[in-house]
Amino acid sequence: MSGEDAPAQQQNAVDQKQETKPAEEPKAEPPKTESAPAAAAEADATPAAATEKVPEEETFTYRALVLTGHGGYDKVKLQVKKGKPTLKAGEVLVRVKACGLNFADLMARQGLYDRMPSPPVTLGMECSGLVEAVGDKVMVLNRFGLWQEVAVVPASHTFLIPEGMSFEEAAALPVNYITAYMMLFDFGNLRPNQSVLVHAAAGGVGIAATQLCKTVKDVTVFGTASASKHETISQGGVEHPIDYRTKDYVEEVRKISPKGMDIILDPLGGSDTHKAYNLLKPMGKLITYGTANMLAGQKKNLLAVAKNWYHQFSIHTLSLIQGNKSVCGFHLGYLDGEMELISQAMNTILDLYKEGKVKPHIDSTWHMEQVGDAMRKMQERNNIGKVILTTEPMPEEEKKEEPKKEDKKDDKKKDDKKKDDKKKDDGKKEEKKDDKKKEEPKKEEPKKEEEKKEEAKKEEK
Amino acid sequence: MSGEDAPAQQQNAVDQKQETKPAEEPKAEPPKTESAPAAAAEADATPAAATEKVPEEETFTYRALVLTGHGGYDKVKLQVKKGKPTLKAGEVLVRVKACGLNFADLMARQGLYDRMPSPPVTLGMECSGLVEAVGDKVMVLNRFGLWQEVAVVPASHTFLIPEGMSFEEAAALPVNYITAYMMLFDFGNLRPNQSVLVHAAAGGVGIAATQLCKTVKDVTVFGTASASKHETISQGGVEHPIDYRTKDYVEEVRKISPKGMDIILDPLGGSDTHKAYNLLKPMGKLITYGTANMLAGQKKNLLAVAKNWYHQFSIHTLSLIQGNKSVCGFHLGYLDGEMELISQAMNTILDLYKEGKVKPHIDSTWHMEQVGDAMRKMQERNNIGKVILTTEPMPEEEKKEEPKKEDKKDDKKKDDKKKDDKKKDDGKKEEKKDDKKKEEPKKEEPKKEEEKKEEAKKEEK
Ligand SMILES: NC(=O)c1ccc[n+]([C@@H]2O[C@H](COP(=O)([O-])OP(=O)(O)OC[C@H]3O[C@@H](n4cnc5c(N)ncnc54)[C@H](OP(=O)(O)O)[C@@H]3O)[C@@H](O)[C@H]2O)c1
Ligand SMILES: NC(=O)c1ccc[n+]([C@@H]2O[C@H](COP(=O)([O-])OP(=O)(O)OC[C@H]3O[C@@H](n4cnc5c(N)ncnc54)[C@H](OP(=O)(O)O)[C@@H]3O)[C@@H](O)[C@H]2O)c1
After folding, report:
1. Cβ atoms < 10 Å from Cβ of A343
2. What is the pLDDT of residues A156-173, one digit of tens each?
3. Beta-bridge mates of residue A328
4. Ligand 2 atom with the shortest distance to the CA of B332
5. Test the B interface: residue of A266, A321, A334 with most B CBs within 10 Å
């Protein structure tokens, strides 16, 4: 973690620096062009400091992605906030460079995520950037509020970015890797020769989990994902990719491993949790950590929610005892009081990163203006790895090229209209349309590095 | 494990030896005196080999402790079986020296243990002895059938006794230590600085668990037990002994550790499982492995059973997820298909034994004739550590001294009478009466060794 040792004194230093050194990051300066109507001061964002009467502090503005209500992609608006936030003891101000998009942000948008305050609220549970006071490059984990150019967070929620890691990678790492790590190594107690079933194996958590499995000798990974992603996940270490859309994954697993699995990571919930339980070997561990099955369509789908509740898994201890089974629940959002545990996990993950054993896989990077498209990419199941938002201003020419696809029609001001054709957004039909999306080569260096490593690997073989 | 490499060929060797070498263990020869009416050939014991017509095989007899029906202590009868058992491929014949008494044997007697066939059946899930064919000293783990002078078991269920371990210790080790080990290190994933709540901390599993906890740095053990046992368990490593009979253990734990426990071992079931669940820290693990609460009185107590069922714990995944909790069920009796896992655990345990880090604590050793008293000692909650049965013949003078206490009246032939005063046997009232019971100094060596080690420890301090 960065600068948490002497929060009180350091805070003063930060405050002073803020006054004397307003524009440390020229690139991160708010462009002031793009802007939906600016929100009034929000509950979660510290309002402009009323006591400090420095004019500059008052004129300070920054962009934020605000959830304005529950519903479709258009509920997330890019707004301009005014007034430089003040810091409390133990907090730091981070100039945000990149943000991670998580499945929970999609759930939150639909009102299905209980760790998010009611709208209006700034979204975002992870980001990377620079601590303004000291210039440290950090990644940040928070319950919400990180999708903005300037974020104030407890210093204990920041982690130093190691040498050689890009801001995109750093924004992609915390949630997925801490989640995968704690599930596999704390609850799962993963050991050599074991077998692990990873659902959504091409997703953010899925790829992190696969990489972490591969740090243990002779672990076999079974992974479910849409067929188009199988090549990537196979290369990433999944021995048995399973297309759950066209096949019964339980049968597929049993064919290969009749006794079942040692560990199953279940982000789906509902009836899939039952299936997972039945697929466990003796001494097997089921770790349930999500209810992706609740998400169907752009807006809350009551049928999907009801189905998930109806199939909600409940276990009797007698069944656990007779089966020699373990059922664990994991939720990073409820671990915010346990920063020590999280730091321990993070330190190990960063060590593995430095050893080249894990590396976030970036699916695509989007401007803040494109958050709807970014969300759509994940929600329509087209991402492989992490979807990233960047705070870099969007070049004028890209704005003319503009959003992408049919997203345009939803992009502006249709907030509360019930125009939400669920069939279209069901994810199963609209796939592939996104495939042609152009990703922007913003940072050359990290990509070059990646290529170098891949070449090196090929040479080894 | 002993002699499992080439079971088929070895079996032949064993068979031949049996024919030529009938009485390898003079001491273990059946004394032919003590005998309740001999049982007819039982389902679980291999009947006299009809095909081999060697007279000696036919005249071969051995004593066995047979559960003749469900009920009080008197349902377990010492019977003489006739005919030397034959061996199937992969099996070995063990001349039994000592047997471990387990809580499950008490439950089985009452018809509350589902891994035991219906009576008549020979009890006993662990013992130590000599493999007749090769002379190896082994300990044995089996679902049932080991409380007899001669036991036929799969070679894979035997483990070599290490140098310096007595037969009593060897009979005390398998069930308690494998159970404690797999719970703490497989499901529990115990790590330095964690806290563990051990119920029945002065019992067989409880002492094993405490010792195993102490092999990990800075683990704090909270243990419940009757007050009279606190001194012993404190010396054994329990930092916080709690008298659950006079105090609310949940409150006591919270006073010392307000956030709760990292691991809770729950052998009680019913409402105690709920309490355990609520006492878990985030990322905590509850391992439930018994329903001792079902046992009240000599015979099945329907009220206790009903209460346990009524309070039967069932968990919703949503609660697990929001709490970041794990609930595991463990049952060694259902792991009989997993001898590889069990062997791995056993090997580690034996290494720890050799390093002097674990050592079974023997409460008392009883002759086969005294099985009722032995059971009573455990059931009335008077044991500290393991209750052992020995197959050594009971000296004549001891027979005159005879059983002990009010047991006499139940000792013979009251099989099916409903005379079972539950109040008296409730365990809470009758305590201490057993305290004066004289233990027989059958083996001098192990005791001397123990004393030596204790002296050494004192000198260290
Ligand atoms: N409890 C926690 O602390 C925690 C933390 C992080 C994530 N999670 C959970 O982990 C899961 C993955 O999260 P992530 O952020 O890494 O997302 P992700 O896996 O990168 O993206 C979602 C992917 O999941 C698959 N998927 C399955 N059902 C889906 C549905 N109903 N809608 C959309 N996609 C679906 C899709 O791929 P395929 O169809 O090709 O498989 C999709 O590409 C989510 O359930 C999330 O809630 C939980
Ligand atoms: N699942 C498995 O594989 C497995 C394997 C072995 C044992 N177990 C379970 O672990 C527990 C301990 O077994 P153990 O063989 O080691 O026995 P034990 O603990 O040596 O003996 C029983 C002790 O438990 C305490 N106790 C609590 N409730 C009791 C009750 N209703 N009746 C009698 N005693 C009670 C008593 O001590 P205090 O009252 O002083 O605490 C008593 O001395 C049992 O519940 C057993 O079923 C499970």
Report:
1. 17
2. 999 999 999 999 999 999
3. A287, B326
4. 3
5. A321
Within 10 angstroms of residue A206's Cβ, the number of other Cβ atoms is 28
- If residue B367 lies in a helix (H) or strand (E), which one and from where to where? strand B362-367
In CATH terms, the superfamily for domain B175-359 is NAD(P)-binding Rossmann-like Domain (3.40.50.720)
Residues of A in contact with B323 (CB under 8 A): 329, 334
Residue nearest to atom 18 of ligand 2 (CA): B203
CB burial readout A255-264, b (16+ within 10 A) else e = eebeebbbbb
Tokens of B98: 């000592």
Q: What is the DSSP letter of A395?
A: P
Fold agreement between A59-172 and A175-359: no
Indicate if ligand 1 lies below 6 Å from the C-beta of A72: no
The per-residue pLDDT for A399 is 63
Pick A59-172's CATH classification: 3.90.180.10, 3.30.450.70, 3.30.360.10, 3.10.20.740.
3.90.180.10
> B328, B334, B339: best mutation site toward chain A, by most A Cβ within 10 Å?
B328
Rounded Cα–Cα distance for residues A285 and B216 (Å): 23
Map out the domains of chain A as residue ranges. Answer: 59-172, 175-359
For strand B91-100 and strand A386-390, is the pairing parallel, antiparallel, or unpaired? unpaired
Burial class (CB in 10 A: 0-12, 13-18, 19+), B241: buried
> Is the CB of B341 inside 8 Å of chain A's CB atoms?
yes
- Put simply, the chain B residues between 252 and 271 with a CB less than 8 A from any chain A CB are 269
Closest CA to B245 of B425, B430, B428, B434: B428
Q: How many angstroms separate the CA atoms of A361 and A379, rounded?
A: 18
Q: What residues form DSSP beta bridges with A241?
A: A223
Q: What is the reported pTM?
A: 0.81
Contact check, Cβ <8 Å, B283/A335: yes
Nearest to B286 by CA among A178, A187, A180, A181: A187
Among A103, A125, A425, A435, which is best to mutate for testing ligand 1, by the most ligand atoms less than 8 A from CB?
A103
**Which residues 6+ apart lie within 8 Å of B315 measured at CB?**
A314, A315, A327, B277, B327
Question: Two tokens at B325?
Answer: 């909790």
* Ligand 2 first shell, C-beta below 6 A: B 102-104, 175-176, 179, 200, 202-206, 224-226, 229, 267, 289-290, 292-293, 295, 330-333, 378-379, 381, 383, 427
Q: Which ligand is nearest to the CA of B241?
A: 2
User: Which residues, including other chains, have CB under 8 Å from residue A287's CB and lie 6 or more apart?
Assistant: A183, A187, A188, A263, A264, A265, A266, A328, A329, A330
Structure tokens at A42: 């929000």
pLDDT of residue B292: 87
Q: pLDDT exceeding 90 applies to what percent of chain A? A: 66
Cα radius of gyration rounded to whole Å, chain B: 22
Residue B361 burial (10 A CB sphere; 0-12, 13-18, 19+): buried
SS3 A456: helix
* pLDDT of amino acid A309: 76
Could you read off the pLDDT of B285-337 as tens digits, one per residue? 999 999 888 888 888 888 888 777 777 778 899 899 999 999 999 999 999 99
Closest protein CA for atom 43 of ligand 1: A381
As a whole number, the mean pLDDT across chain A is 81
Q: How far is residue A452's CA from residue B29's CA, in Å, rounded to a whole number?
A: 76
- B327 chain-A contacts, CB cut-off 8 A: 315, 317, 320, 326-328
Pull the structure tokens for residue B103. Answer: 């809580």
Q: Name residue A284's beta-bridge partners.
A: A325
ipTM of the complex: 0.78
A358: tokens are 């894990």
Between chains, do A314 and B312 touch, taking CB under 8 Å as contact?
Answer: no
